[in-house]
Amino acid sequence: MDMSLYLGLIGKLLVDCIYSWSRMFIALGISVIVSIILGIYIATSRKAEKLLLPVIDIFQTLPILAFFPIVIYVFVGYLPGYIGINAAVIFLIITSMIWNIIFGVYEAIKTIPAEFFEMSEMYGLTSMEKLKTIYLPAAAPRIVQQSILSWSIGLFYLVTSEIFSTGTAQYSVKYGIGAALASAAITSNITYYLTGIAMFVVFVIATRMLFFKPLEDYYSRYYKPQSNVNRYLNWRSIVKLPNRLFTRMQPAPKTNTPSREKTYPKGGVYISRTLPSKKSTDASSKKRAALLLIILIAAVTLVAYAFPTVIKDEAFVVESISFSFVRIWLVFVVILAISVPVSVYLIFISKNISRYIIAFQIIASIPSTILLPAIISTLRTYPHPAELTAIMVYFISGIWYLIFSAIGASKSMPFRIDEVKKVFGIRGLEAWKKIYIPAIIPGLITGAVTAIAAEWNVSIVAEYFVSGNSVTQVGIGIGKLLNLALNSNNLLLMLIGLINLSAMIILINTFLWKRLYRKATIVYR
Question: Most exposed residue of 8, 57, 405, 514, measured as fewest CB within 10 angstroms of its CB?
Answer without folding.
Answer: 8
